[in-house]
Structures are given as C-alpha cells and as structure tokens.
Amino acid sequence: MAHAAELDTAPDTIEATLNYVADTGEKLFTYTGGPGSTDVRTGGTADPRRVVICNGRPHASGFALERDGFRFVHHDTKVADFFDPDEVRRLYYPEMAALVQAESGAKRVVVFDHTLRTADDALREARKIREVVPRVHNDYTEWSGPQRVRDLLPQEADDLLRRRFAIIQVWRPIRHPVETFPLAICDARSLAPEDLIVSERRYPDRVGQTYAITYNPAHRWYWFPRMRRDEALVFKVFDSLKDGRARWTAHTAFADPTSPPAARPRESIEIRTLAFF
C-alpha cells in the first residue's frame, strides 16, 4: 500500500534537463573499454535542454510497441541475483525471449546481450558493470541493425535479412525501486529522421553505430516513476520495415528532480534481442 500511495503522489509531469547533441557536422565517436570501464566520447557539442516529461503510469495500458515504440509491463522474474551472469543467462534470457515474443508477435527471438548499469561508482567498479547513460540516443542505426544480425548469425544472415526483423530491448531495475537516474523514453511518432545523427561506437573487437539525437520541440517524453524489479520497459531500437510503424525510440537516463533525499543509486539491467517475423 505504501508503494501505491507513493505513486499516487507522483506528479503528472516534471521538468528536467535532457542531454541532446548539437548537429555541427562533426563526426561523433564513443570508445568503449572492458567491463567496469566508462565510455569515452569525442566529437559533437552537448546541447542540454529543459523538457517536460510526462508520467507514463496513468497511460501505461495505451502504449503500443508498433505505434509508440515501447510498452510498460508488469513482469516478474525468477532471477534472484542479477550480478550472477550464469543465472541471468540461464533464467533471464528465456524469460526475456518469451516476453519479447509475446509483446511483438515475433516468430523467433534471439537474446544476444545484456548490460548491468549503476549510478554508484563504487559498485560499478567493484562489480565491473557500466555507468548510466545520461544522453539522448538510440542504440542502432540503419547500418548497425542489420550488421548485428551478420555478426551474431553469420550462417543465417542472408536469409534472415530478406524478411522483417527488429531489435527489441527490455529494461528493468534489478534490486530497489528506481530513485535516481530513471529512464526517459520518447514517443517514436514524435521522432523525425532529421533528429538522428550517426555516432560510431568503437569496441575492443568491433565497430558499431548508434544514433545521437538532436533537440526537437516536438519530442514527447515519458518516464515511469519508481519502477520496481517486477516492472519492465519493452522498447524497439530498430525495425527493418519502413511502413510508418515505430522504428526507433530515443531514450536517456536523466537527473530526476523528484529524487528523495539520500536516494539509492539506480541499478538496472537492459537485455537486447533480435526479433524475427
């Protein structure tokens, strides 16, 4: 009951600063090291903007993956310890494949990756996990979406890429309700192609691409206050179909002006899947 009362008092909207990038024509690069390291970014000019973010909880049942690009769902997990990678792969990967299949209608879902994040620097270094990402972005581009299929399923890629596929991610807290740096997500219908700027992502063993996002006053932002570990955000970061459905969803962590005093640092997991139709 305390949780319900707390959510009843969450505001319908908040104002917060989101970190966009200005399109200066400069090439953007991110260098990503091993576990526990922080990303190093070069190029581009930060463009922080004050925006209105709507509380998505009252509207949760109305969001559609193919229209808005995301769904907020109640979804429990049998995982006891998200810091145990074997348990995550054994239990969470099948749970997430089933969830994405149910939400998207895909015939086949391949879970290929997960990332733990925390806003606690000491925990990040101790557990060798990643930092939160307080910048507006989308995880795949027109090139890097199909390339991920080629990287992961090289024997099947030519055949699979003849048909529709999507990259769908699932985000959730792993222990405590989110009190700092929640995830904001942008309604896909408010995101224009000209808002997307390719940013090269250089890993130790490969090169990828993401989209950095430029500010557009038409963007419609949502967040889900105090998300718990039995709640998940399912969202699309690539879709090969270009028929007007949602293809991308810009998202970002942000400094929440409603965070309580002595708030616990956010701890979360995001899972990445290939969904084939």
Strand % is 35-45%
- Broad shape: globular
Number of strands: 16
Structural class by SSE content: alpha+beta
What average pLDDT do the residues reach?
91
Number of helices: 5
Largest sheet: 6 strands, mixed
Order of helices and strands: HEEEEEHEHEEHHEEEEEEEE
Task: Describe it.
- This protein has 277 residues and is α+β, with helices and mostly antiparallel strands.
- Helix content is 17%, strand content 36%.
- The chain has five helices and 16 strands.
- It has helices at residues 2-8, 85-104, 121-127, 144-152, 157-160, and strands at residues 13-22, 28-31, 40-42, 45-55, 70-74, 108-118, 130-131, 137-138, 165-173, 183-186, 196-202, 207-213, 221-223, 231-239, 251-253, 267-276.
- The strands form three sheets. Strands 5-14-9-16-6-7 form a six-stranded mixed β-sheet. A five-stranded mixed β-sheet has the order 1-4-13-10-15, with no helix packed on it.
- The longest helix is centred in the middle third of the chain and has 20 residues, at 85-104.
- It is globular and about 55 Å long.
- It starts with a helix and ends with a strand.
- The model is unreliable at 1-5 (pLDDT under 50).
